[in-house]
Amino acid sequence: MVDGSESSQSGNTLPSRLINVGPGKESCSPFLWETEGKKGRYAVLSYSWGRSSSFKTKKSTYNDRLKGFDVAQLPNTIRDAVFITRELGLQFLWVDALCIIQDDDADWATESARMDGIYGNAVITIAAAASKDKWEGCFRNASPAATQTVALTSQCSNGSGIGVMFISSRIGSVNEVLERSQLCSRAWTLQERACSRRSINFAQDQLYWECQRHCTAEDGMVFTERSAINKCLSTISVLPTKSRFSSVMTCWHWLVTEYSQRELFAKSDKLPAISGLASQIQRHTGAQYLAGLWREDLPRAFLWHISSEDTSAPATKWRSPSWSWASIDGPLTSQGLSVGALTSRETLEELIILSFKVDILNKNNMFGEVRSAEITVNGRLRPTRRALQKHQFDYGGWIGNISPGYPLDEYDETGCSIGKCYPDFIDAPPEFYCLLVHSGTKDIGRGLFALVHYFICVVEVREAGTYKRIGAGYLAGEGQFESYEPTTLRLV
Do 319 and 222 sit in the same domain of this protein? Predict the structure, then answer.
């Protein structure tokens, strides 16, 4: 443990600033402390801000925060976190609203880029799981029945030994309680939970201790199955080098899909709020980050698709190129149609990436907001149009079980549409070009194989040769792109 004047070599490198809550459990005025690269032990708070006014650190209040402030001024959730930190015997607490200068763009970009280290190096994460904003506090008045558990010992059905069955009146399984909590509806908290080594979750019914191996409830129940979020990243570093990249990319697609279902108060935070995880992915793979996608994962990474154009829409203010999932508000499937492309028995053709250019808004966070981005590619363009009504049912077909899409307005000799498309938003134009991303043969059973072409829907914008994405889809059958020569174009 370190204090505001002495250095210690114990613990991890501290964040740039911490709240010094005082040694021991005695009540004293906390103050903001500049750590100057010292090492030590600290707690972090994971919580939902809400839209109400808050006690923040700004340029105008920074010097006052260094001198100290009254705990009574803090929102209830942060005040509770101070109390919990003291009770845990820790002297330091990190809270974003106080430890980041909120109206300093450079400081905000620098600190938001370090989220994986801030949460990953903390001794403990205090997670206000049941609180919808900073004023509700960490603690809940759970009914006595909520934490009452009866343990029954009995012979296992397979005769392997004696087992214990727990009967509880809890409000759901641990995954239901935590992953459907108020906290897990917020976008920023995905990386906070994924990066944390261990957490105390203050849930609606009781407390839950969670680490990289298991979860334990306040009533004594132990859950050996880790959450999907913790499981996703914790095993990456021990994977063999040859299989690591594909496993890491699978993890990234899962995280982005989960992330897209969460809410952001500031829509401009779409990329910054996942930048800590992006930093981890790059550290594991060395891959090059392109506004939410990875260069080494292209071109198949272009094939993400939205869950429903009724609930998705393009960002009202530009924040990323159209080929990135970050350009869309609403749930989506990051790996999308590339699942079908990845299972191709044989790859016959893929889009060629010639060059790319990404202009980062703030150089202090290479994984944060972008000012502009484009990719130059060489591939086949084919004009088509879609039907105005989507299919009512989808039986899997060529690419697996995803939501019903719009049939293309082109038909085979039996009168069936030869493909489908999935628009990125409800008013996407029905006429567009198919930009071929991947062609491969697929096993359709009974020893038969079919050729499937996966594409993104693009329309021309501004000067000739510049296109933006408006959807994704597939075509089935021979000769669908053969008569169209490869061409070079820019995607923006």
Answer: no
